[in-house]
Amino acid sequence: MDDNAKTLAKDLIDLLGRVNKTGQVVDAEVRKRFWDKFCFAGGWDSDCTNNLPGNIPKRRAAEITTLVGTIKAGIPITKKALAKGGPRANRVPGATVYLKPNINREDENVTFFWCDSAGGAINSKFVHLRPGYSKAHAKTDSVIRWDEAEYQRINNHNIRWVVYWARARLVRWMFGHMPVGATDTDGNRPTMEDWSAEDHTKLETLRTCKMMLDEMRQVAADVDAITGSRKAGEVRI
C-alpha cells in the first residue's frame, strides 16, 4: 500500500479501540495488522464487492449461561405441571441448573438468574451446586463466561463495520489517484466506486458485567470512606 493510503483508517482504528475498550495505541504496526488481517482477509482487494455488514447478532443462551449444578429434591411442582401429569424432565431432581448474569443498564447493576435447561427460573435454594462450588464461585464463573461471549459479540460486530468503512475509503482514495486519462477498462482498479456514508452509530460500546461490578465496588468503597470518617468523629456513650 501507498504510505498515505496506510493512514486512511487511523481514526477508525482509534474509534474501534474506544468502543471495544482495548485502549490500544495505534501505530504503524497496528495499522498494518488491521489492513492485512481484516481488510484484505479472504483475498479481498479493491476490485471486490464491499459487503454491507448486518445487524449485531443476539446473545445465544448456550454462550452466556454456565452449568452450576442440579435441581435438589423437594422443588415445588406447580399446579399447571400437575395438571399435565407432572413436571417436565428439565424440572425434576437431578436435572441441570444454569446461572446467567443480567446487566440492568438502567439501574446500572448486575443480577443473577438461576434457571433450568429450558430457561425457566429456579430458586437457588433448590440448587445442588457442583462439587467444590460455592455460590460465589458459580457467580464468578458465570460472569467470566458472559463477559467473554459479550466481548466477542461486540468486537466482531464493530470490526465488520470498521473494515467496511476502511475498504470504502481505500476504494475512494484509489479512484482519486488513478492515472490521468485512465479508466477501469484499461485494467486499472478499482472498477466500482463506493461513496457509502459512514454512520458511526452502527458501532456498539462494550459493556461487561465486570465493568458494572467495578463501578458498584467503587460505590461501596466511597460509602465506607464516608461512613468510616463519620464514625471516627463520633463520641459513643
Description of the molecule:
The radius of gyration is 26 Å and the shape is flat. Helix 2 (10-19) runs antiparallel to helix 6. The longest helix is centred in the middle third of the chain and has 42 residues, at 135-176. Helix content is 43%, strand content 11%. It has helices at residues 3-6, 10-19, 28-39, 61-64, 79-83, 135-176, 209-232, and strands at residues 66-71, 96-104, 109-116, 127-129. It is built from 7 helices and 4 strands; from the N terminus they run ααααβαβββαα. It has 237 residues and is of the alpha+beta class. The mean pLDDT is 86. Strands 3-2-1-4 form a 4-stranded antiparallel sheet.
Task: Provide a brief overview of the structure.
With 237 residues, the chain is α+β, with helices and mostly antiparallel strands. Helix content is 43%, strand content 11%.
